[in-house]
Design goal:
alpha+beta, four-stranded mixed beta sheet, seven-stranded mixed beta sheet, homodimer
């Protein structure tokens, strides 16, 4: 049990918490302790990014079994420290406990934002345009690739790995879009925003539900990285599958009123931020739809990552 | 993954986090989901109490296996809600995950206090008097009693339970000393304070280490409840064993400069707070000592509750 006091002057306070559990979110056959620490913190920072805030402090609670070594614990904290350093985040407390069932890492991040400026999930209105930052599906493909490499089977030997390495980087060391989120909130561009942690299918649904709206997404507009396109070609899958349902991209999904699109384009030029328009907000009654080539309606995947599947 | 924004104006922010893990902190053979929820929140509030603060918001992260029923989850949240209601605490977020290893409950509480007024663990100085609120050892005895009752063996049948019920109440529904902590900080009485979660032996050591001091505790001065004395008599144990090493009493341990004792006594009278002087702060070199009847030096238990024992 640990505690701390800190100061945030005349700002709104942002709080986010997230837990990673061994055997559910990660598996030490395909990742390191350093990676788990890094990603556990990244997932929280991503949520602060989606509100447009600045992360300031964090608390870490760990449960682990007696088998964990001090060196492994050090690596876990180093993974967090490496990311925390980039954002001048301060570790101010936490708790540890024995956990016979395996490791879990529960992080709470405290952030701040100018009063009344936090971007919410519920602000999308009919007619607003839907954008995402970066590229989608890389993390899910990266995890799949890591498992293939780990198995060392014939599929592994048939892959040309070098061009696929960015996928591994995206999966194991995701970069939370703090800078992008800050700009999108400070310039009052986003009417609603959410981070893509569970996958576009799931997270767009969350945003639509909280805003009481529907949406149409253009399949052809989904931003795909060259590495993902190449990977999908090699494993003979549709890259859109990864882009739709793959979790942990930690990109931002946002809606923008048409009148603010010029401001967004100015931001894109000035700050070299990558955003793609992928659809538009519709009334709730039209549901959430996916349009393929020539306007053909495609089945919209019901959800992304499922914890209890 | 969940997040929230909230406002705390011109106050210092207090943050505390605590995790309870099934099979380590609790066991559903001897407790209910309602009790686990209640105690998980109480443990955090106790830490806010020790800083002298007011709890305002909380976040709850749960890991649980597929065996958990919705009714059990409801009971867990109701246990928290019952305590949260008393302090007008608002649940503002949290996270859930599958956890094949069993239930864990990780809570973060956000509190506030007037700027610069948070009571720390490091403020004890040589000559300050050591006090505790309430009575000690009840919770540990309550847990032992619950296990005896659960076993239904001959020891159970030989006990007169009625007079021992307060011990069960203290163990399963501990009351965090928020009111006491507020008064002790607002009236600038405590120079250092910590809550008794691991037991007096452990927590006094924490306070002394952080303050760079030693301490002498008088065994005869430890406040014991009638129920604990009665229980110890029935099971033929020394009640001081429970008072020293028993965890989860969630009383406050504090040091008070001699010049502020009159103020403390005034508080005791006005607010009907129970405090007992149990010792005095000495230089670090004298270590932490326990004095028995006639000034005889007793072995000081090395520590209280051990997670990884």
């Amino acid at each position: 049990l640990s505690s701390a006091s800190c100061r945030l002057d005349s700002k709104d306070l942002l709080l986010t918490t997230d837990v990673l559990v061994e055997g559910v979110y990660f598996d030490f056959r395909t990742c390191t302790f350093h990676q788990v620490g890094f990603k556990a913190l990244a997932a929280n920072l991503s949520d602060i990014a989606a509100m447009g805030g600045v992360p300031r402090y964090f608390l870490v609670t760990l449960g682990f079994s007696g088998k964990l070594t001090v060196a492994q614990l050090d690596q876990l904290y180093e993974g967090m420290a490496d990311l925390a350093h980039d954002y001048k985040l301060k570790l101010i407390g936490g708790d540890i406990s024995a956990a016979p069932g395996g490791l879990f890492v529960c992080i709470t991040v405290v952030g701040e934002i100018e009063k009344g400026r936090a971007v919410v999930r519920s602000g999308a209105k009919v007619g607003h345009l839907i954008f995402v930052t970066g590229t989608l599906g890389d993390s899910a493909a990266g995890l799949e690739l890591a498992k293939i490499i780990d198995r060392s089977d014939h599929l592994h030997r048939s892959l040309a790995i070098t061009s696929l390495l960015p996928l591994l980087q995206r999966h194991f060391y995701p970069i939370p879009r703090i800078h992008e989120g800050r700009q999108l909130s400070a310039r009052r561009i986003a009417s609603a925003m959410i981070d893509l942690s569970d996958g576009l299918a799931s997270d767009l649904r969350h945003l639509c539900e909280e805003s009481g709206v529907g949406a149409v997404v253009e399949a052809a507009a989904l931003p795909l990285s060259p590495a993902l396109v190449e990977y999908a070609r090699q494993v003979r899958r549709d890259p859109l599958d990864y882009a739709f349902t793959g979790g942990e991209d930690f990109e931002l999904l946002l809606t923008v009123p048409e009148g603010r699109v010029a401001r967004l384009m100015q931001l894109v030029r000035q700050e070299r931020i990558k955003v793609s328009q992928i659809g538009r907000v519709f009334p709730r009654a039209s549901g959430i739809r996916l349009k393929g080539a020539g306007g053909r309606r495609l089945p919209f995947p019901r959800r992304g990552y499922e914890h209890f599947a």
